[in-house]
Amino acid sequence: MFPAAFCVEPGASASSRLEIEWTGLFRMSDSLQRTPLYDLNLELGAKMVPFAGFEMPIQFPAGLMAEHLHTREKVGLFDVSHMGQIRIAAKSGDVKEAAAALETLVPADYVGLAAGRQRYGLLTNEEGGILDDLMVANMGHDLLVVVNAGCKVQDADRIEKALSDRCVVTRQFDRGLMALQGPAAEAALAPLCPAVKDMRFMDVIETELATATGPVKVTVSRSGYTGEDGFEIGCAGADSEKVARAILAQPDVLPIGLGARDSLRLEAGLCLYGNDIDVTTTPVEASLGWAIQKARREGGAREGGYPGAEVVLKQTCDGVSRKRVGLLVEGRAPVRAGAKLFADAEGQKEIGMVTSGAFGPSVKAPVAMGYVASEYTALDTPVFAELRGKYVPLHVRAMPFVAPGFKR
Amino acid sequence: MTTYYTKSHEWIRVDGEQATVGITAHASEELGELVFVEAKDEGTDVAAGDAAAVVESVKAASDIYAPVAGTLAGFNEALSDDPTLVGRDAEGEGWIFRMTVSNPDDLKGLLTAEQYKSL
């Protein structure tokens, strides 16, 4: 899912010393948390780095480039257990009531979300800024919410505070979560978990997964954050390693680190919370208006009714002064987060900033996303990024940069 | 010819005043496959520790510093077409730039191969 990539520092740009901050020369602090797959990650040869308060695998011995390409061509397994899993159950037992309650915090249509389906959403603040992005599944009896690692405590506090009169909010932060991503994901998972063959994009089920010591209970969604077909598998923390080992034993499955997760999600045009979206960006500015369904828009059955609704509704009608766009770089030099964007090759008129940028291994060119002034958002508009004192040409391009592989 | 090393993982191979600079095999391994390498223009004067080139992997950009003061004397153009050459032969064909050393005595302050290895 969304978040996970790792950011050196949101907004940090430019070059770093060759003491490459994320490649293992980092000193780990004792205060960092570990996921249930920590030991397995080490056994698999992971380079670990601090991310959102956790020690996480940035890459495995195959290396970022190979891991990225393997995920697009075959299938890769990602440890995303640092993300927060939260269950929301209505005291009345009616899942629609839990959905209606969550709609007071998130401008998405969850009342209309059928059992067994999940939907992306945004937690907004009173100014319409984005507190986090999340995935919400209707599990039939309650809601399963997955939020970003760095925001999970704050998110759970906010949800609990707003919903506790009507709902029971349960933090399941000790659970394991892994993403299995790539065109061969179904072939890898189906032998262990046959029910997944019948799932389509954004379906969610509770089922059993066969491990070496017998079946274990899992939640499986057909989703992810790479632009590929795939699944996210949640399970008890104690079962996580068994589940991961069973999946890794399938043909073509390689462990993949957060480094490749970041380049994969960027090519897929997906936002990294803290880089591309945060409290200073609204859903409209972030070009995430699609995450607000018709029922919650002006004239919809449940228009507004979430924090910052006035701001977002007004921006939807009147437009915004800047928007998030995809950017394809001419030439080979990557343009990174923090680079300033200009309308001209002389750097006279500043019009925005890059929020994510990397070399796209599948695109085979540098790709980026960022915010530009509204008059520069049309496809193919030329813009220029400041890079080491020069101005590099880029063009506004549609995202994703790679064709999605979802099973609709 | 003598090769010296820096704490910031550059090597410099010196023949009189002429020198060739690259990144160490260890640094190359840490960075992973490179996607872009670029040096400052030939003729640029640099002080020791000035950024003289940049190497980029998928995720990160890293500056390459001039190990000593001097004048840049050319970029390894083969890296424009194939930056992965650094990964295959960091301390040989994957050299990054040439420079003229201003004061050969400055080299005495750098690390020997043994000193670098023991870091």
Automatic annotation (TrEMBL), chain A:
* InterPro entries assigned: GcvT, GcvT/YgfZ/DmdA, GcvT/YgfZ_C, GcvT_C, GCVT_N, TrmE/GcvT-like
- State the reactions this protein catalyses: N(6)-[(R)-S(8)-aminomethyldihydrolipoyl]-L-lysyl-[protein] + (6S)-5,6,7,8-tetrahydrofolate = N(6)-[(R)-dihydrolipoyl]-L-lysyl-[protein] + (6R)-5,10-methylene-5,6,7,8-tetrahydrofolate + NH4(+)
Binding-site residues, substrate: E232
> What EC designation does it have?
2.1.2.10
Superkingdom of this protein's organism: Bacteria
Report the sequence similarity comment from the record.
Answer: Belongs to the GcvT family.
Read off the NCBIfam families from this record: gcvT, PRK00389.1, PRK13579.1
What is the name of the protein in this document? aminomethyltransferase
The species this protein belongs to is Gluconobacter sphaericus NBRC 12467
UniProtKB/TrEMBL annotation, chain B:
InterPro entries in alphabetical order = 2-oxoA_DH_lipoyl-BS, Biotin_lipoyl, GCV_H, GCV_H/Fam206, GCV_H_sub, Single_hybrid_motif
Protein name from the UniProt record:
Glycine cleavage system H protein
- Function description: The glycine cleavage system catalyzes the degradation of glycine. The H protein shuttles the methylamine group of glycine from the P protein to the T protein.
Keywords, sorted A to Z = Lipoyl
Residues annotated with N6-lipoyllysine modification:
K59
Q: How does it assemble?
A: The glycine cleavage system is composed of four proteins: P, T, L and H.
Q: Which SUPFAM superfamilies match?
A: Single hybrid motif
**What does the cofactor field's note say?**
Binds 1 lipoyl cofactor covalently.
The uppermost taxa in this organism's lineage are: Bacteria, Pseudomonadati, Pseudomonadota, Alphaproteobacteria, Acetobacterales
- Tell me which residues make up the Lipoyl-binding domain: 18-100
Q: Does the keyword Lyase apply?
A: no
Listed HAMAP family: GcvH (MF_00272)
One Pfam family, short name please? GCV_H
Names of the cofactor(s): (R)-lipoate
Domain of life where this protein originates: Bacteria
Species this protein is from = Gluconobacter sphaericus NBRC 12467
Q: Name one GO biological process term.
A: glycine decarboxylation via glycine cleavage system
Give the protein family. Answer: Belongs to the GcvH family.
Alphabetical GO CC annotations of the entry are: cytosol; glycine cleavage complex
